């Protein structure tokens, strides 16, 4: 039986963080703050967050803040909710959310809500249910949900529900596992899951499991480790996770490890990256893999971090 090569993945993540000029680092340049969240959360649920110099990370994160209050993907980059959430999540991991000017950041995010309750990702106005989730999660972590119209935000998300029980990026758009996760998690955080048809959606989600045990994002697509998060966390939030074969999914994720250099790829024998390493280990956490700390399916942060930030424990 395969096992999770924790030591190899720690080394892989630390080297990715340090590397600057190779292909992956260049591709990742514009989303380095996302990469920090993916890498550091993976280390934390493997119990290895102490492996990084926290003050170095925090000062770099704060340098990514734009004068608008939002965060860019790297120093000097334009702000976007995608990176603003990652900044809040990284600070939460180190229990340093208080270094933020909470009202400045939350005003930036609240300013992106549109008349119809939807959210834009940045000042250029692109609307996507991903941004609804990111805005709601960010404001929940900052205890500033009162700065937006949650009722209208929920109403907009429900306007994106399809007849198959799934959700798309805008009203009428096709159901896709990534969007389903964002909508279900946003509804979970706002206590609105009663609007979801759990059997109909649960059926669409459990149909994502292919014979190799992996999960895909849409019918007829290839399985991909990152769907181990999008589909699995959605199934958990709607209490239908018993509708898939958890053992076969664990095996699929473990088969995607690079046993030599560490890291996890989207499917067996592909190139690894920090994105799929995070979603693979986070998926194993949702599958209660031994020795991995539990992660919250909606907040996408370790449960102990969510308890500390949300309940002040
Ligand atoms: C290597 O080519 C790419 C392609 C796209 C992107 S991206 O647009 O910035 N992005 C983040 C991402 C990061 C990495 C890593 N390291 C790798 C892939 C990947 N994808 C692409 C992907 C993953 N599974 C299948 N596909 C096709 C998702 C995408 C969208 C996304 C952004 C933030 C949060 C969730 C999802 C980056 C690299
Ligand atoms: Zn993927």
TrEMBL record:
Q: Which PANTHER family match?
A: GERANYLGERANYL TRANSFERASE TYPE BETA SUBUNIT (PTHR11774), GERANYLGERANYL TRANSFERASE TYPE-2 SUBUNIT BETA (PTHR11774:SF11)
Q: Which note does the record give on the cofactor?
A: Binds 1 zinc ion per subunit.
Q: What is this protein called?
A: Geranylgeranyl transferase type-2 subunit beta
What InterPro entries does UniProt report for this protein, alphabetically?
Answer: PGGT1B-like, Prenyltrans, Ptb1, Terpenoid_cyclase/PrenylTrfase
- Name the job this protein performs: Catalyzes the transfer of a geranylgeranyl moiety from geranylgeranyl diphosphate to both cysteines of proteins with the C-terminal sequence -XXCC, -XCXC and -CCXX.
Q: Which gene encodes it?
A: LOC107012631
Q: What class of enzyme is it?
A: transferase
Lineage: superkingdom: Eukaryota
What's its EC?
2.5.1.60
**Which species is the source of this protein?**
Solanum pennellii
């Amino acid at each position: 039986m395969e096992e999770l090569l924790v030591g190899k993945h720690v080394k892989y993540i630390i080297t990715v963080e340090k590397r600057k000029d190779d292909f992956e680092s260049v591709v990742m340049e514009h989303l380095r703050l996302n990469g920090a969240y993916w890498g550091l959360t993976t280390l934390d649920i493997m119990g290895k967050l102490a492996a990084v110099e926290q003050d170095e990370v925090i000062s770099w994160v704060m340098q990514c803040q734009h004068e608008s209050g939002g965060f860019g993907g790297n120093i000097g980059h334009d702000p976007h909710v995608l990176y603003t959430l990652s900044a809040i999540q990284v600070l939460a991991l180190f229990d340093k959310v208080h270094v933020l000017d909470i009202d400045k950041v939350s005003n930036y995010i609240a300013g992106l809500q549109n008349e119809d309750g939807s959210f834009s990702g940045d000042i250029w106005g692109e609307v996507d249910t991903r941004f609804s989730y990111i805005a709601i999660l960010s404001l929940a972590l900052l205890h500033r949900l009162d700065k937006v119209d949650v009722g209208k935000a929920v109403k907009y998300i429900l306007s994106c529900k399809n007849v198959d029980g799934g959700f798309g990026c805008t009203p009428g758009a096709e159901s896709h596992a990534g969007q389903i996760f964002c909508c279900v998690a946003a509804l979970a955080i706002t206590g609105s899951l009663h609007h979801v048809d759990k059997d109909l959606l649960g059926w669409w989600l459990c149909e994502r499991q292919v014979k190799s045990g992996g999960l895909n994002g849409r019918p007829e697509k290839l399985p991909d480790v990152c769907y181990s998060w999008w589909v699995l966390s959605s199934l958990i939030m709607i209490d239908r996770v018993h509708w898939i074969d958890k053992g076969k999914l664990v095996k699929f994720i473990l088969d995607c490890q690079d046993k030599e250099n560490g890291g996890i790829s989207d499917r067996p024998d592909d190139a690894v990256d920090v994105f799929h390493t995070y979603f693979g280990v986070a998926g194993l956490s949702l599958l209660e893999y031994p020795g991995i700390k539990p992660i919250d399916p909606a907040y996408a942060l370790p449960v102990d971090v969510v308890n500390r930030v949300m309940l002040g424990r």
